[in-house]
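Subject: sequence -> structure tokens, single chain

Hey, anyone have a minute? Need the predicted structure for the following. Not urgent.
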Amino acid sequence: MTAPLEPALLDRRVDDVDPAETAEWLESIDGLVAAGGRERAHRMIEALAARVGADRARAELTTDYVNTIPASQDAPYPGDEQAERRYRAWIRWNAAVMVHRAQHPSTGGVGGHIATYAGAATLYEVGSNHFFRGKDHPGGGDQVYFQGHASPGMYARSFVEGRLDEADLDGFRQERSREGHGLPSYPHPRLKPAYWEFPTVSMGIGPMNAIYQAQANRYLHARGIKDTSDQHVWAFLGDGEMDEPESRGLLQVAANDGLDNLTFVINCNLQRLDGPVRGNTKVMQELEAFFRGAGWNVIKVVWGREWDALFERDVDGALVDLMNRTPDGDFQTFKAESGAFVREHFFGRDPRTLALVSDYSDEDIWNLRRGGHDYVKVHSAYKAAMEHRGQPTVVLVKTVKGYTLGPSFEGRMASHQMKKLALQDLKDFRDLLRIPIPDAQLEEDPYRPPYFRPEPGAPELEYMLERRRALGGPVPERRATHTAIELPADAVYASAKKGSGAQQAATTMAFARILRDILREKKVGHRIVPIIPDEARTFGMDAYFPTSKIYNPRGQNYMSVDRELLLAYKESEAGQILHVGINEAGAVAAFTAAGTSYATHGEPLIPVYVFYSMFGFQRTGDSFWAAADQMARGFVIGATAGRTTLTGEGLQHGDGHSPLLASTNPAVVSYDPAYGYELAHIVRAGFERMYGGVHPDPNVMYYLTVYNEPISQPAEPEGVDVDGILRGMHRVSQADGQGVPAQILASGVAVPWAIEAQRVLAEEWGVAADVWSVTSWNELRRDAIDADSAILHAGEPREPYVTRRLREGSGGPVVAVSDYMRQVQDQIAPYVPGRWLSLGTDGFGFSDTRAAARRFFRVDVESIVVRTLEALALDGAVDPAAPRQAAERYRLQDVRAGHTGTAGGDA
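Reply:
Had a minute. Here:
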């Protein structure tokens, strides 16, 4: 019989005027619990409270500390539990031995984690045997986000399946020293691209990416690109990981979209890396409340089937009450002690619960398992999650960290840092798992205990392989073959190449027009995924609303306030734009899901994520790093770029360094174009590299910084140096006439300042300066580093591109300027022939006019002039007094004397 529902609640109520009637209601509730389970009873109580409109009535966010699914409703287990238990033991053994062998002195002790997979093995094995569908499944297969620290278990299963061999396992964390057999420490698709799909070990990013992967599946289906209706997303997470704000911060997205194709499985072993997650309270209860409050379906798996008989006998709810009151710190301690200890310190807290186990031996008590180690309980939870409709589901599963590894590991505070087993630990572990390895083999070299895999044809092995065949093949597996797409036609770039004529236009507007024309392309436009974190109107992208529409799986069920306007806000179930709200983290997760669809689904999507440049690599750089690991492809547009260009917005909006942050990500190809025609060539090259099918390294993201300052956009010059634009620099204005030679390098919005400085230098100081538009400081540096590397590796000496081009210029010193800090320009300083001086916007930004800010930072036209004269004076090419005279003439100390830049542009 199931225990009555929280009778202690009556003690907190007012005096009961009709105890008999109360007893009848309680008896009815007890009957409901017995017939439908405690969850059903709680739902009924909530409905009754809502009906009477009680002031204090609200949906209870937590239930008792027991399994959500009562024993009477456990699903029949569909597999051969004995066979699964046998090969689960082999996998456990191999996972632990792989990490242990990696600590051999000859390898230098490369580390690894034993305890996480040991505790979570049942969670993964139930999934692998009955739920996780591979790529060859008729429905298309599932996406599984494996917990990073559990990677040894995935490798160990693949070894038993025959996907990996002993040399591979011995290459764990030795990817270069065991070339061809190295295994990455964690799930890293870039390092093992035919195996891992999703990087998860940067805590908090896995949950976000899983949510947006589930949304991307629905998006693909809604847009008619692929039928994903029979695909499911699984994310395996740790209870400690859920403390990350990113882990919890986007739960409402999944609930709002009704993503019932998503299941979180949270391994609640009650331990963080160093100690208890919630020693004084209960993390499972906390997570239950949080997920319920966010609109998720919650299933708790707390206790194994050995507890079922005790719950049946717990007629007065004493055991349930004791479980509700016992904090996690105590539960962790119990699993590090003994059955006698648990009898005294847990059951002994209440004479009624002590009586429940009076006929249990200490060994019986010790064998009362947590639910996460019971195949039947975990299977029932997964099945219920798959069958639930209308909400995402979280399965909270209680486990023991280091389970089966023995008393040195199980539930110990230091288990996460323990990398190897003592000889006796190995023997005990072998005996517990019944691995047929004799003592002699373990004693011969305790650092290298043998792996175990049965001979081909073993019935358990055949059963294991058959289960995977039935589910569509191996998991994890990544495939990069995809549907070929037709690239945008040349015509879509024509408007950007024409220039702005008599009008002025910012590069943000130039890009928006290019994207508009690409969206109209019949053969590729439907694959473009514009992603905007609530700034579409700022970036001039609200023009897409009426035609492309905003994706919302619930459609638009309200009357829009701007419905009569030409650019009305329109949502649709088949909308193309992902308008994620004020949510940069979610936007990068959406970018990652779309940008990897070519591999995940074999159907390319081309994400174009547009955001305030300051809030990109600075705020969400870790997510971009994970996107790079997952080999995402797409365009990342840093709009409203520059330290001084975004007038009035102040310190935290002024971007003076995003190209520098972008340069730290090897998968980011970064450009800072000045003109629309440069943008056109860069965007075209990005499509060709990422989706053209011929580039040796297509797995990159193009980061383009664009500005909101309107300028006169020139038409593309005849014979423009396209190769130079793409490689990082091209000459946009050659010195006209004779004079002292110099060269000015500028990027982005600074190029017009440099051209104006060129004029002033020629007319007032007799200096003939060439002006170069540096479309990418980062790519110039990468090319130079490649040239260095060729020499390091005894290759053919090669002059860096920037060095060669500047030698072809007018000569003289080089002055570099941008709307970023000097370190952005100084990246290429070692490769510049002759003298180098730079200007930049170092320091914090502030609110002021563009002209005043540029004068303050010394990057305006006159500052470029003075800096060029300084370089020439140092070279002895002009009068040493010239720089000081120029500074006085132009009143460089007076910010009010600045006049560089135009007004206008949204902020």
